[in-house]
Specification:
With about 325 residues, this protein is an all-alpha fold. It folds into two domains: about 1-125, Farnesyl Diphosphate Synthase (Orthogonal Bundle), CATH 1.10.600; about 130-325, Orthogonal Bundle (Farnesyl Diphosphate Synthase), CATH 1.10.600. Helix content is about 75%, strand content about 0%. It has a two-stranded antiparallel ribbon with strand order 1-2. Helix 3 (about 45-55) crosses helix 8 (about 160-185), helix 4 (about 65-85) runs antiparallel to helix 6 (about 105-120) and helix 4 (about 65-85) packs antiparallel against helix 8. The longest helix is centred in the middle third of the chain and has 28 residues, at about 190-220.
């Protein structure tokens, strides 16, 4: 198995190579935001997962590199459009694309990234490529469904925990599952292993998004790369807020509702006030337990896979690295 650090280097090298090609493509106004987006950095978890899924069944991973790139390009497209809809100003401690350029450029360049992702995926040689294309297309549609639920939830005060978990499964988790499964299928693995990897990736993705919710409120801005408290000031129906609304009573609940419904507020004051309520209700501990439950699900699935012990240890190490992240 390739060391995780080596997979990351391979991805960074491929992104750099393809970005150089895009940088001289015309018109520059279309491709400059794409190059900027891909150059903003990031954890590159999704392409690494695809290469890992491929490497479980193939010693060489060269054929899977374009597919890994496709997943990273598509993921960054979703972030680009998500930032527009959320009116986010920062991404990875840098101005978001619609701030750096303009909104119309960000929308069109994001559209181009979708088609680039398909273009790169089609470079892979595999008998299972049609199945992978179906998986990727279904995943892309599910992500759109998840984003719509996310926007709809902003107008509701009665979002349940189950609804929220389903929303983040669609918006975030399915792509992680897709990456592992696509890599496995491209390498010619059987459906059983590919399906198990998908389920593992989905649980990992839900834990990952819950962790993002947690870090948005309780993380360190320099490490996290985004403004802390953005979800609170934007009234996002995160797991933390849903559990707070579920647990709060009396004056505490009314204060929380007033903070959420207020149209004129000082962002810093609102964030601190909501965090104070979260602390009163032990939301931090409740969220940490929920995050850990999905990581444990991933470990259970992994233990039941027909993999070599060193492969299981390899995947466990990767999951633990994600679990311990601060950004």
């Amino acid at each position: 198995m390739y060391p995780i650090e080596e997979l990351q280097k391979i991805i960074y090298s491929e992104i750099s190579r393809r970005s150089s090609e895009l940088a001289v493509s015309k018109p520059g106004e279309l491709f400059s935001p794409v190059v900027y987006t891909l150059g903003m950095g990031g954890k590159r978890i999704r392409p690494v997962l695809l290469l890992m899924g491929y490497n479980l069944s193939s010693e060489s991973i060269d054929n899977a590199i374009p597919a890994a790139l496709a997943m990273e390009v598509f993921h960054n497209f979703t972030l680009l459009h998500d930032d527009i809809m959320d009116k986010s100003q920062l991404r990875r401690n840098k101005p978001t694309v619609h701030v750096k350029f303009d909104q119309n450029s960000a929308i069109l360049s994001g559209d181009a990234m979708v088609f680039l992702s398909y273009k790169y995926l089609l470079e892979c040689k595999s008998d299972n490529l049609p199945e992978v294309l179906d998986l990727f297309t279904d995943t892309a549609l599910e992500i759109c469904q998840g984003q719509q639920y996310d926007m709809t939830f902003e107008k509701r005060m009665d979002v349940t925990e189950a609804e929220y978990i389903e929303m983040i499964r669609l918006k975030t988790a399915v792509l992680l599952g897709c990456c592992l499964k696509a890599g496995s299928l491209l390498a010619g693995a059987g459906n059983r292993l590919a399906d198990q990897l998908y389920t593992l990736g989905s649980n990992l993705g839900i834990a990952f998004q819950l962790q993002d919710d947690f870090l948005d409120t309780f993380g360190d801005q320099k490490e996290f790369g985004k403004m802390i408290g953005g979800d609170i000031s934007g009234n996002k129906k995160t797991y933390l807020l849903i559990k707070a609304l579920e647990s709060a009573t009396g004056e505490t609940r009314q204060k929380l509702l007033d903070l959420i419904s207020s149209e004129k507020f000082d962002p810093a004051e609102k964030i601190e006030a909501v965090k104070e309520i979260f602390n009163q209700l032990s939301i931090k501990n409740i969220t940490e337990k929920k995050i850990n439950s999905f990581y444990e699900n991933a470990f259970i699935i992994l233990n039941n896979m027909a993999l070599k012990e060193d492969q299981k240890i390899y995947l466990k190490t990767f999951i633990n690295n994600i679990r311990d992240r601060k950004y």
